[in-house]
Write a structure and sequence with these properties.
Bound molecules: pyridoxal-5'-phosphate
CATH architecture of the largest domain: 3-Layer(aba) Sandwich
CATH superfamily of the largest domain: Type I PLP-dependent aspartate aminotransferase-like (Major domain)
Structural class: alpha/beta
Strand order of the largest sheet: 4-10-9-8-7-5-6
Number of helices: 12
Strand content: 15-25%
Oligomer: single chain
CATH class of the largest domain: Alpha Beta
Shape: globular
């Protein structure tokens, strides 16, 4: 059957569809309707961290479907899949981050965080970072930087200022008027920007001094992507609030706001039901998240991801058209000479059966973020493909 996508009633949100119809996916491969196999080196933009078709995740989903789907709204009932996912998640986190509020997506987690920092501090202003991406709803878009993406939708939420990452002087803009400071621990869309650890400590100190809540958005860089459970573990800095999503659901839609229980409780009164959503913490998504976390916790997964990351970086650094590689774990931005060269690389990779991708806010880099379960043999195959693409560049 030819795709319904192009000619019938489905919204097309990209002007650059690949037009490939996926029949199934397993491990690090997509299998297309036309019988091709494509190596997934993007992980659905940070989602399929354990690859596709993980058996334990599938079993957990099936088991939950048999038990029950949606029950009630806003936390009236105890649902075992929610409490299990929350216990597993808080078990991995520092003591301060002891309360999870599951939502349906990353942007919703950030929307909830925007509300929580205001509610907890009684302040109205927010600081975010140049280069940031926090989502596509109006609040999270307001705290995202890319003006090209925002201008058609103004007015957005007021009271947001942007500061420069790794710039100590800009920390002076974090004052007692600020409710919260939002930062992707490793900026994704900006092209994998890794903060200076000393800067991150100074940021933490400044937020504590002025009573602003520090929010780390780990929607893309969390859940093993950087070869640690959470990116902030690389820097020894603990946020007041953490937002998660993407890979957490093991392929199902989920987001999560994590904070201290005392703060989180502020969302339940004044106003009553301060942040609610009918499907938030959907039992099937939570069952998948719990299984994902159990799988991620296997001791070999994260060291293996780092070893594959090092191998890929070593090989890519021998490519003469590569200008810079920014890598942390299996999160890569590879800078090339120009946007056009990146386009050639991405197109040629795909022609040879390897999915790589762009960054919206960093068009001169290409993105690879393979599943953490990628084997050395698969990584070598991917390098051979990328080398062929690279060698075609004039
Ligand atoms: C760092 C970051 N925050 C938030 C989001 C928004 O998440 P979602 O697309 O699930 O709403 C994304 C999505 O790419 C992201 O990368």
């Amino acid at each position: 059957m030819k795709s319904l996508f192009f000619n019938q009633g489905l919204a097309q949100t990209t002007p650059f569809p690949l037009g490939i119809e996926i029949a199934r996916a397993e491990g690090i491969y997509f299998y297309t309707e036309s019988g091709n196999r494509i190596m997934d080196f993007v992980s659905g933009v940070g989602v399929s961290n354990l690859g596709h078709g993980n058996l334990k995740i599938k079993e957990a989903i099936h088991a939950q479907v048999e038990k029950h789907l949606h029950t009630m709204v806003y936390g009236e009932f105890i649902q075992a899949s929610q409490t299990k996912a929350a216990a597993l998640l808080t078990g991995l986190l520092p003591e301060r981050l002891n309360c999870c509020y599951f939502v349906n997506s990353g942007t919703e987690a950030n929307e909830a965080a925007i509300k929580l920092v205001k509610r907890a501090t009684g302040r109205k202003k927010i600081i975010s970072f140049i280069g940031s991406y926090h989502g596509s709803t109006t609040g999270s878009m307001a705290i995202s930087y890319n003006e090209k993406k925002k201008s058609a939708f103004r007015p957005l939420m007021p009271g947001v200022e942007f500061i420069r990452l790794n710039n100590w002087e800009d920390l002076n803009l974090i004052t007692e008027e600020i409710a919260g400071v939002f930062l992707e621990t490793v900026q994704g869309d900006a092209g994998v920007r890794i903060p200076n650890p000393l800067y991150l400590s100074a940021l933490r100190k400044k937020c504590t001094e002025v009573g602003a809540l520090l929010v780390f958005d780990e929607i893309q860089c969390g859940m093993g992507r950087t070869a640690k459970h959470f990116a902030f573990e690389h820097f020894n800095v603990i946020p007041d609030i953490l937002t998660l999503g993407k890979a957490l659901g093991g392929g199902l839609p989920i987001g999560c706001l994590v904070a201290n229980k005392n703060q989180m409780e502020l969302l339940s009164f004044d106003p009553l039901l301060g942040h609610i959503s009918t499907f938030a913490g959907h039992p099937v998504a939570c069952a998948a998240a719990a299984a994902f976390l159990e799988e991620l916790n296997q001791p070999h997964i994260l060291p293996h991801a780092e070893a594959i990351g090092q191998y890929l970086e070593r090989e890519l650094s021998t490519f003469k058209h590569v200008k810079e590689i920014r890598r942390i774990g299996l999160y890569f931005a590879v800078d090339m000479e120009s946007e056009e060269v990146v386009q050639q690389m991405v197109d040629s990779n795909l022609e040879q059966g390897l999915l790589s991708f762009w960054f919206l806010s960093c068009p001169w880099s290409f993105r690879i973020a393979p599943p953490l379960i990628t084997t050395f043999e698969e990584a070598e195959k991917a390098i051979n493909i990328m080398r062929k693409s690279h060698d075609k560049i004039a």
